[in-house]
Automatic annotation (TrEMBL):
This is TubC N-terminal docking domain-containing protein.
Amino acid sequence: MSPLQLLTWLEIHGVSVNLVGSQKLVFHGPKSLLTDQVMAHLKKDKPFLLKALAGQQGTSTVGEAFRFLCEGLSISITVLLCDYLTEDDLLDIRKGVYPDLTALRQLIQKDLTGRDRS
């Protein structure tokens, strides 16, 4: 999982991420998710995450977008993050500027339907 995928996955699962000033990330959430290994991974990628969070509209935007995308799909958040969305998609969703979430969901649905027939 990329740093952005991990950050998004954590937020969707209830971890809040706050940007304090311009150089400090503060994570609040279940210890079962914020393990030493996860925190080490996030710390290693801190410069990238700071840049990604700088233009973000908020975790509610991310959560709402993913709830919308998963609506009616038999797909896990992890599969959606890892198999269907690019880094650019994730950045656009985080900023609240993804051009057409409905079209994206329909495209994913079409792919999933095609896989079921195979």
